[in-house]
Amino acid sequence: MTIAERVRLSLQREGSFHTDPDEAWRSIEARLRSPSRAPDGSRFVTAVVAIALASAGVVLGVRAFGHGPRPPGALGGERIAFLQYVRTPGGGNANLVTMNPSGSDKHVIAEHVDPDVARPTWSADGRRVAFYGNERHLGLWIADADGSHMRRLLVCLPPACPADGFALSPDGSKLALVRSFVDAGGIPAARIEVLDTSTGASLFITCSSSTCGRGLAEPAWSPDGSRLLFSQANKASGPEFEFESPSSAIFSVDVDGSGLRQLSDRGCSTTAACTADTAPAWSPDGREIAFIRNEIPAGTIGSGTWEVAVMAADGSDVRTLTTCDQAVCRPVTGPVWSIDGTSVSYAIVGDPSIFTVDVADGAIHQFHTCGRSTGCSGPLELTLSPDGRSFAFAGQTLLYSIRTDGTAMRELAPGVAGGIAWLPAPQG
């Protein structure tokens, strides 16, 4: 076998290049054919190393799971983080990327991140990130924002772990994740694991299926890190219901597992309507919770209308901010609180608009973002800048930013797989 054939075969077997193996090989061929040489002979050395590594079955240029960190301070200023699809055999692969809000200075934090299991989660100060690796690096990983100090926190396999999301505490010291299991009675159930990111010690928050239903999801930390919100899925009751109902409720619990409290209603039957309360989001001061409520007619598993609602942190004072008034109500993205906690923003799947509703009086401000003519199907994920003046959102597979008054929309990056976060500038 010739050296050229060995290099090509190695590229094909590796399957982790950002380009096709043939394209990568053509790039190497071009470099090897190039007559130019650097004064220090570096091109010649690179060619020799490439040949040597290929002969040994190692591919030059295949990147490690994590990229090398930038020098201290090199990632200063605000950054937008997101997952970006990478073309590999079989799919299910993305890079975790950060960049300046202008779209410049893109930096890959980690490769081989699975975009289909769960979205990355960041600490409130933007210094640490947790994410799920794909089949090459299964498990939950944590790293600093520049890619340094990367390590695996937990080896676990979906769909049991993480079952329905995970979240870093505001200071990045703990990770809450959902694990599914089968209880002693053979009934599927779920619990929340709170993992210390430094020691690896775990605390399990268990809620019986009779109290919390069969599935927990969407853990969310209070701003002070003392409590967790989560939603749960309930099994409909009655002889005609032998399937899982989309109904759900929102619960809160102290981080040590005490103080479990149901904040919203749940439970469906053949005669009674119910609600599916999901997507809980703490207000910046931790005093209120915004969420999405779907009204489910009696005897059905379909959703009727949705509401964007808020309630006090103890579950009292539930208020509907806005309700779907269409014949067919499409899913909602959000809710996202304003920095001062006076308004909540959301988007409707398939509608090229962002809506912001005032919590006090229910007044709604709406502006258009993008349409199909620009290759964008409307906001699919929504996040707010640290100063509260701009949104970043995914329009199908394109990443955009736009001012909160609807001006200055800018396309930032292609191939977006979700996981969008707008990180604050490092402090200190």
Features:
mainly beta, four-stranded antiparallel β-sheet, 10% helix
Description of the molecule:
This protein is mainly beta. The chain starts with a helix and ends in a 5-residue tail after the last strand. The chain has helices at residues 3-14, 21-33, 42-55, 209-212, and strands at 79-85, 94-99, 107-113, 121-122, 128-133, 139-144, 151-154, 166-168, 174-182, 188-196, 202-206, 215-221, 227-235, 244-254, 261-262, 274-282, 288-296, 306-312, 319-323, 332-337, 343-348, 353-358, 364-368, 379-384, 390-395, 398-403, 410-413, 416-423. The strands form 7 sheets. Strands 3-2-1-28 form a 4-stranded antiparallel beta sheet, with no helix packed on it. Strands 4-5-6-7 form a 4-stranded antiparallel beta sheet, with no helix packed on it. The chain is globular and about 55 Å long. A hairpin with a 5-residue loop joins strand 10 (188-196) and strand 11. The chain has a domain at 3-55. Mean pLDDT is 76; it is low at 1-64 and 235-244.
Short description:
The protein has helices spanning 3-14, 21-33, 42-55, 209-212; strands spanning 79-85, 94-99, 107-113, 121-122, 128-133, 139-144, 151-154, 166-168, 174-182, 188-196, 202-206, 215-221, 227-235, 244-254, 261-262, 274-282, 288-296, 306-312, 319-323, 332-337, 343-348, 353-358, 364-368, 379-384, 390-395, 398-403, 410-413, 416-423. With 428 residues, the protein is mostly beta strands. Strand 12 (215-221) and strand 13 (227-235) form a beta hairpin.
